[in-house]
Write a structure and sequence with these properties.
Blueprint: E1 6-8, E2 11-14, E3 32-36, E4 46-52, E5 66-74, E6 76-81, E7 85-90, E8 93-97, E9 103-107, E10 113-121, E11 134-137, E12 144-145, E13 151-155, E14 166-173, E15 189-195, E16 197-202, E17 205-210, E18 214-217, E19 223-227, E20 233-240
Antiparallel strand pairs: 1-2, 2-18, 3-4, 4-10, 5-8, 5-10, 6-7, 6-9, 8-11, 12-13, 13-14, 14-20, 15-18, 15-20, 16-17, 16-19
Length: 246
């Protein structure tokens, strides 16, 4: 299954076999896989898979106009946030940092860690105050039922607050369960398969995907998903919200 990576009209599929470790100054020699950046037009986000050695991490960083979302896949990461102190994020833990927030990330001294980072320039709107920082764990709340039997979801950011310009959601599907239609919409997606496998419709194509795969979907890319009959499937989904793209 080393040939599943793909670049199609309005989307990319990146598998572990396609990973190319890069470097970013804030992480020193810690490997960073750039899953998508604005070089992949029309993406307006950067999404990165970061691997940290025991004790590895960043020096203090300033947001520089970019908000960030962290989701820990393995190990424990300590996040130091200005105004919020020290927060330990175990696997399944997450945090949102507003733009301009100084922060530092570091793995525990005795255990490596992996995490996903979403970075985008915050889009202010009217008289809305920018949101504050928050953190939590995927198990803090149960998954909510949807209109599709066997399809549940857990929202990690407040979906009803227009101060936020993106959502991060965990979508979970029972065996053989899928979305009830092919969606076509203005919002872009960054999708990380957290569990299981299934078939993703992307434009005119179908792709078999599994845990650890990443998909970028541009605005208006036709899309749909059905989990494998062999077991449940789940993914972490980025979506821009509450803004019209201007």
């Amino acid at each position: 299954m080393t040939d599943r990576g793909a670049l199609g009209l309005g989307y990319t599929v990146i598998t572990p076999a396609n990973h190319y470790p890069s470097r970013l100054p804030e992480f020193g020699d810690q490997p960073v896989v750039k899953l998508v950046t604005p070089r992949m037009a029309p993406s307006r986000i950067g999404q990165y898979l970061v691997s940290l050695d025991p004790g590895g991490g960043t020096t203090q960083r300033i947001g520089e106009g970019f908000e960030r979302f962290f989701y820990v896949l393995e190990g424990t990461v300590t996040l130091f946030m200005a105004g919020s102190g020290r927060t330990a994020l175990a696997a399944g833990g997450y945090a949102y940092l507003p733009s301009e927030t100084p922060y530092e990330l570091r793995a525990e001294d005795d255990t490596p860690a992996r995490l996903l980072i979403v970075k985008r320039r915050y889009e202010a709107h009217g008289d809305l105050d920018a949101p504050g920082s928050l953190h939590g764990h995927r198990d803090d709340e149960s998954f909510a039922e949807t209109a599709v039997e066997g399809f549940t979801r857990r929202e990690l950011l407040p979906v009803g607050d227009p101060a936020f310009d993106f959502n991060m959601s965990l979508l979970r599907f029972g065996p053989g369960v899928g979305l009830d239609k092919i969606e076509v919409h203005d919002e872009e997606h960054g999708l990380w398969m957290t569990e299981g496998a299934g078939t993703y419709v992307l434009g005119a194509d179908e792709h078999e995907v599994q845990a650890e795969d990443f998909i970028y979907m541009a605005p208006y890319c036709p899309q749909g998903f059905t989990a494998s009959p062999a077991g449940p499937a789940e993914y972490l989904l980025y979506k821009d919200v509450w803004r019209d793209g201007f």
